[in-house]
Design goal:
- This protein is of the alpha/beta class.
- It has one domain: Alpha-Beta Barrel (TIM Barrel).
- Helices cover 35% and strands 17% of the residues.
- The chain contains nine helices and eight strands.
- The chain has an eight-stranded parallel beta barrel, surrounded by five helices.
Length: 213
């Protein structure tokens, strides 16, 4: 179960997001087993297409893996499932119910918010978010339908408006992550490297060396 001491501790600087596809539930569990125990990670369960019973079962299976204490498990938007499964927190889309409205039900839980502008960052901060997720920073196939990437400059503009940890997402690789850190990003978030990829552990080690020099 989540404890207040975790919420006060420094967040992991690597955030991984599951793919949210019908056939990826077992992939998520397999990739969780592959996580290097020495690499601090937040993992967001993002299977929004699943109905509540399926999602709760998946979340409980993830908890039962007995992952390293360096790993925090979150779920997309579903505070009820996070509480029932004993997850560490909830990640909220930009237009979701703000964290200050939900914290009464889960006062010890970690709440993160996706934001796409400095104004959204200020609103999420005022509503009690614990961290922010901004992107897409670089080009990534999964986000092309939403328009062009925002770029490192926009990331830096947003980082300068808030004291909250900001995670950069969208086309982030070990080769370009330093561009995000130079703009003030606290950490990086990634979706594609967490799919059925046997090199996940190696990629996470590369990120770890950049983020924890």
């Amino acid at each position: 179960m989540y404890h207040e001491i975790i919420r006060k501790a420094p967040l992991p600087r690597i955030s991984l997001i599951s793919g949210g596809m019908d056939d990826e539930r077992e992939i998520l569990l397999q990739q969780l087993k592959r996580l290097p125990r020495s690499v601090p990670c937040m993992v967001q369960i993002r299977e929004k297409h699943l109905h509540s019973k399926q999602l709760l079962l998946l979340a409980r299976k993830a908890v039962e893996l007995n992952l390293s204490g360096n790993t925090l498990l979150l779920i997309n938007e579903r505070v009820d499932i996070a509480l029932s499964a004993g997850l560490h927190g909830v990640h909220l889309p930009e237009n979701a119910c703000p964290p200050d409205k939900l914290r009464a039900f889960a006062p010890e839980m970690l709440f993160g918010c996706s934001v796409h502008s400095p104004a959204s960052a200020l609103s999420a901060s005022a509503a009690g978010a614990d961290y922010l997720l901004f992107g897409p920073v670089f080009d990534t196939p999964s986000k092309r339908r939403y328009g062009p990437p925002q770029g490192p400059d926009k990331l830096g503009e947003l980082c300068r408006t808030t004291s909250l940890p900001v995670f950069a997402i969208g086309g982030i690789t070990p080769e370009n992550a330093n561009l995000c850190l130079a703009e003030g990003a606290y950490g990086i978030a990634a979706l594609s490297i967490f799919r059925d990829n046997p090199e996940t552990a190696e990629t996470l080690d590369n990120f770890y060396r950049l983020l924890y020099p």
